[in-house]
Every structure is written in structure tokens, then in C-alpha cells.
Specification:
Keywords: Signal. By secondary structure, this protein is an alpha+beta fold. It contains nine helices and 21 strands. Strand 15 and strand 16 form a beta hairpin. The structure holds 2-acetamido-2-deoxy-beta-D-glucopyranose (2 copies).
């Protein structure tokens, strides 16, 4: 009895949200106090062949890879040079314990990793890649702005070449089997969205909205007068209808979002070199010295900016 009343209420609420578009309620607040209840360290091999050694929680705590004070600070270990015969530089890959389908994720970030050889990412991943899909919210390499936002999934998901977004689309086929797994990416038009400029402007906010009809990503630099008040305040509910044109817009015109994207975990990681950052074209064209692997092995002083600092992450459903 109780259950059916609850179900009716729930479906009424869900119907109301669909009808009115973009209102969502806060479901998870992830800050320094709750981070370890919500995210787990994954000491796994990097599938993109990075010069990295992802560590477990205990190692992360003892090496200062994670520091929980007023913020959530996640850093590579840049305390010294590393052996050329070892696996790579100690760093972090953290994954949310929960999975999300229709949701908003807001990341309030003070600092992001940059420096030669760095390849940081804030992203979401489903089961059985590429079938459950991947949404890259923040990604780039070797200090080079702007931020790149990308979907990767199985065949049968493409994006219209022209769509209502402020960023610049790259490839439009999200199928990982074409274009060497470039996915369907969009470059932000704001240089403050990545790297040194992001940090020197005090960071900012990224937000991603996923529904069964579309995926949208926004970025606001710290002092952007257009930052919505619900984002700025980390409000207990948000309305995406007030957020303006997204930086990246991935509609369902030629992509069934429900069948190409399963429930997702949120992942935050920092790798070095590897398939993208370390490729000879990406590394040398960014003006970085030496080879990527030698640089990452031997120049800890060049990697002092290889850390994320989050004020909070909030999930709305
Ligand atoms: C880390 O992030 C990069 C960039 O998104 C990704 O391609 C790579 O697979 C990630 N590595 C792991 C182990 O998650
Ligand atoms: C999209 O995929 C879902 C899940 O597989 C399915 O239920 C739905 O009918 C599909 N929609 C269309 C328009 O094909």
C-alpha cells in the first residue's frame, strides 16, 4: 500500500520534471568531508598506456596524492624523479561509488592539472565500453587550451554538424570504431576553460546535464557575470532552463541516448603521456621539450601544477 502511494508520488514528480524541463534536486554533495564516502581509488593499469602508476587509497594518503582540508586536492606524486624502468609516476584515478542516469553533475574547481605530459580528465563511463558509452566533460593534454568535450560509444550514434552550442564541433560520429576513437568532440571557445588560463582566472564550474533526450555541457570561468546563481551557490535545486546556450550540445536526433549510454560512474584521473598526450604529434606540437616519457620521469619541478583542487561536486537528479 505504502509502496504504491510512494510510486504514484514518484511518478508524478518525475512527470512534473519532464513537463517543466530542467528542474532537478540535489542528491549528493561531495566535498572534503564526504569525498571518501563517495569515491574510491582504482589502482589499475591505464588502458591508454600512460606513463602512470595509479595508486590505492593508502598510498595516496601516505604520498600526499590526496589531501582533504577545505578542498579536495588530488595530485600526482611530484616529490622526485622516477626510475625509467618502473611503471610510471604515481597518480590518481578515482571513481564514484554510485552510478547515475538522468542527472546533473556540477564540478566547482579551483585548480586543474597542467604541464608538459599531463592528461587530466573529468568524465563518466558506462559498463562494457564502448557499449555503455563515455562522456568526457573535461579533457586536454600538455597545457594546450581549450577544453574538449566528447562522447564515445558504439556504432549508430552521430551528431548533426550544426547545432545550438557555443563550442566548435570536431568529428560528428561518436562511434569509437571510426576516426581512431576520436569520438564526437566539441572544443570550447573560451581559453579559460583549460590549463594555465583556467587556473590563473581562479578556476570555475563545469556542469553536465544528461537526460534520455540529450547531453549538454556548460563552463563558466570564476568571474563570469553570466554564471547562474544556482550554480554559484551550489543551490539545493537547479534549473537548467536558466543556464543559457550550452558549450557542447549532443541531441538525440541521430543517436538513441538511452541505448548508447548506460548508467555511468564519474571518474577523475590524471595520466601522463600515453596514446594522446605522449603521441609525437601532440607532444612536440605543444612546444614541450625532450620526449614526453623522459620529461615526466626526470622533471618533477615541471609538474608542480599536476593537481586538481575541487571545492565540491554536486549531483542533482
Ligand atoms: C584517464 O583519462 C584519460 C582521459 O580521459 C582516459 O583516456 C584514460 O583511459 C584514463 N585512464 C584510466 C585508467 O581511466
Ligand atoms: C531507444 O532505446 C531504448 C532502450 O534500448 C528503447 O527502449 C527505445 O525504444 C529506443 N527509442 C527509439 C526511438 O528507438
Amino acid at each position: 500500500m505504502q509502496f504504491s502511494v510512494a510510486s504514484v508520488l514518484l511518478s508524478t514528480l518525475l512527470a512534473a520534471r519532464t513537463a517543466y524541463g530542467g528542474t532537478y534536486s540535489l542528491s549528493d554533495t561531495i566535498d572534503a568531508g564526504s569525498f571518501l564516502d563517495n569515491f574510491a581509488f582504482q589502482a589499475i593499469a591505464d588502458p591508454t598506456h600512460g606513463r602512470v602508476n595509479y595508486v590505492d587509497l593508502q598510498t595516496a594518503q601516505s604520498e600526499g596524492i590526496i589531501t582533504l582540508g577545505n578542498t579536495i586536492r588530488l595530485s600526482a606524486d611530484v616529490s622526485g624523479t622516477i626510475s625509467a624502468s618502473g611503471p610510471g609516476r604515481d597518480s590518481f584515478r578515482v571513481q564514484s561509488n554510485k552510478q547515475y542516469t538522468t542527472h546533473i553533475a556540477v564540478f566547482n574547481v579551483d585548480h586543474m592539472p597542467h604541464g608538459c605530459g599531463t592528461w587530466p580528465a573529468i568524465w563518466e563511463l558506462g559498463a562494457n565500453w564502448p557499449n555503455g558509452g563515455e562522456v568526457d566533460i573535461v579533457e586536454g593534454v600538455n597545457d594546450v587550451p581549450p577544453n574538449r568535450m566528447t562522447l564515445h560509444t558504439s556504432a549508430g550514434c552521430t551528431m548533426p554538424a550544426s547545432r545550438d552550442e557555443s563550442g566548435t564541433p570536431l568529428q560528428n560520429d561518436c562511434n569509437v570504431a571510426v576516426n581512431s576513437n576520436a569520438g564526437c568532440g566539441v572544443l570550447e571557445n573560451d581559453p579559460n576553460s583549460y590549463g594555465p588560463d583556467f587556473n590563473s582566472n581562479g578556476g570555475g564550474w563545469w556542469a553536465m546535464e544528461r537526460t534520455s533526450d540529450e547531453i549538454k555541457i556548460w563552463f563558466w570561468t570564476r568571474n563570469d557575470a553570466n554564471t547562474p546563481s544556482d550554480i554559484k551557490n551550489g543551490a539545493s535545486s537547479v534549473n537548467t532552463d536558466n543556464w543559457g546556450r550550452p558549450d557542447a550540445y549532443f541531441p538525440n536526433t541521430d543517436c538513441n541516448i538511452s541505448s548508447h549510454f548506460s548508467p555511468h560512474n564519474i571518474i577523475i584521473n590524471l595520466t601522463f603521456c600515453g596514446d594522446w598526450a605522449g603521441s609525437s604529434s601532440a607532444y612536440s606540437s605543444s612546444g614541450c621539450p625532450d620526449t614526453c616519457v623522459d620529461y615526466v620521469n626526470n622533471n618533477p619541478a615541471g609538474l608542480i601544477n599536476a593537481f586538481f583542487e575541487f571545492e565540491w561536486i554536486k549531483i542533482y537528479e
